[in-house]
């Protein structure tokens, strides 16, 4: 009887009853919360889909799988051909030509992982924030710069036109002109910038290419302005001295058919080159320290002297001239021009606003040097030689059309051995 009373009393103990009820409720709460978290995760967090209110630029990819989002974004943002236009011609650059593409997969992965790769609580926080605001991802393009450069090189080859200077050929008093050509040069830097802008702005389609005009330094009009003979001078030589005669012929050919633009300087030595056997010259008598010796190039001073006299009478500016050490047989004192490889040169420049043309001709035993130019530049010139016991002073006198003296110009002082 007493034992039964104890058991009954224990069963109905209020404290034990409340504890058990509390434990049951706690377990139920844990189970319900766990289920809710499980359900939340499966339905909203780790459901294999992108979260709500996620955009790639203007495309809503909310609640899509990665594959669905990639397909949708790729459909809305496609790379297209670039059409390069110049002078009625079109040159296509296809996306595959330069590996042009958008980083769609990379961006979709970032969008997918926006609520999945950080800490759990950060992911939940982002998920709830997305209920109030959108999250936008931006596409970026990429292409192969080397392939683009190579493609543009091919386009440039089809567009570029080499610039050509006009040329003048005078033979037998006949003037023949080869016209100049304006060059065309594909502007690589500017055209690349236009392509970059089109790709970055996604405004595909036509791009007008920039091509620069390259003007010739010597135009057809400049060359055509040479229309008359300004001056000429001739000397004679013996054809019996074969080496010397050949040197005159070689040097005459090398200094001839030269167009000298306004302000340019003509160098006899630069045109003839050093006087050596290897350079096409022959042994012949040369004045060395007042004596005649055989050496390569003997005779070239007759060519320089003949040219010098033509230059004097044409009014060109004498930049450098030096006389021989003894009086020459083919020119009087004060009118010879000695040249050598050690520095003595005949140099003159063009003072006119038009080009001048130097012509040198050998015919039999006669050497003739001619200076052609514009008829408006043709001077009226006299050469005055003031002799003195050991040499002469050379002057050039300019006159007007009526023969009145305009000015007297000192040219050089020549000193010779006895």
From TrEMBL:
<keyword id="KW-0812">Transmembrane</keyword>
<dbReference type="Pfam" id="PF04294">
    <property type="entry name" value="VanW"/>
</dbReference>
<dbReference type="InterPro" id="IPR007391">
    <property type="entry name" value="Vancomycin_resist_VanW"/>
</dbReference>
<protein>
    <submittedName>
        <fullName>VanW family protein</fullName>
    </submittedName>
</protein>
<feature type="domain" description="YoaR-like putative peptidoglycan binding">
    <location>
        <begin position="93"/>
        <end position="203"/>
    </location>
</feature>
<feature type="transmembrane region" description="Helical">
    <location>
        <begin position="21"/>
        <end position="40"/>
    </location>
</feature>
<dbReference type="InterPro" id="IPR052913">
    <property type="entry name" value="Glycopeptide_resist_protein"/>
</dbReference>
<keyword id="KW-0472">Membrane</keyword>
<dbReference type="Pfam" id="PF12229">
    <property type="entry name" value="PG_binding_4"/>
</dbReference>
<keyword id="KW-1133">Transmembrane helix</keyword>
<dbReference type="InterPro" id="IPR022029">
    <property type="entry name" value="YoaR-like_PG-bd"/>
</dbReference>
């Amino acid at each position: 009887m007493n034992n039964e009373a104890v058991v009954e009393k224990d069963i109905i103990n209020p404290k034990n009853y409340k504890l058990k009820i509390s434990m049951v409720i706690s377990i139920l709460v844990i189970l319900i919360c766990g289920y809710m978290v499980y359900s939340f995760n499966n339905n909203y967090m780790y459901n294999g889909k992108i979260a709500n209110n996620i955009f790639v630029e203007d495309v809503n990819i909310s609640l899509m799988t990665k594959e669905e989002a990639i397909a949708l974004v790729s459909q809305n943002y496609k790379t297209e051909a670039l059409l390069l236009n110049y002078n009625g011609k079109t040159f296509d650059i296809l996306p595959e030509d330069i590996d042009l593409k958008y980083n769609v997969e990379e961006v979709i992965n970032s969008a997918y992982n926006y609520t999945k790769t950080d800490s759990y609580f950060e992911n939940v926080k982002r998920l709830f924030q997305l209920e109030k605001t959108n999250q936008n991802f931006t596409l970026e393009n990429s292409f192969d710069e080397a392939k683009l450069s190579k493609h543009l090189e091919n386009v440039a080859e089809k567009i570029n036109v080499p610039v050509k200077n006009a040329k003048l050929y005078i033979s037998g008093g006949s003037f023949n002109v080869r016209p100049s050509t304006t060059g065309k040069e594909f502007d690589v830097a500017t055209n690349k910038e236009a392509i970059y802008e089109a790709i970055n702005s996604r405004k595909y389609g036509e791009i007008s290419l920039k091509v620069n005009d390259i003007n010739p330094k010597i135009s057809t009009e400049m060359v055509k302005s040479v229309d008359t003979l300004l001056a000429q001078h001739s000397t004679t030589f013996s054809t019996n001295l074969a080496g010397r005669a050949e040197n005159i012929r070689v040097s005459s050919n090398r200094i001839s058919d030269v167009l000298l633009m306004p302000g340019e300087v003509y160098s006899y030595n630069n045109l003839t080159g050093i006087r050596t056997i290897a350079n096409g010259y022959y042994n012949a008598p040369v004045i060395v320290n007042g004596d005649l010796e055989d050496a390569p190039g003997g005779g070239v001073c007759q060519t320089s002297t003949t040219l010098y006299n033509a230059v004097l009478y044409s009014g060109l500016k004498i930049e450098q001239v030096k006389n021989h050490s003894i009086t020459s047989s083919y020119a009087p004192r004060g009118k010879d021009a000695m040249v050598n490889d050690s520095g003595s040169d005949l140099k003159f420049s063009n003072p006119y606003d038009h080009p001048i043309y130097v012509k040198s001709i050998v015919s039999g035993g006669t050497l003739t040097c001619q200076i052609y130019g514009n008829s408006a530049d043709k001077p009226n010139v006299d050469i005055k030689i003031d002799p003195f016991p050991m040499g002469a002073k050379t002057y050039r006198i300019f006159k007007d059309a009526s023969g009145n003296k305009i000015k007297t110009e000192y040219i050089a002082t020549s000193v010779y051995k006895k």
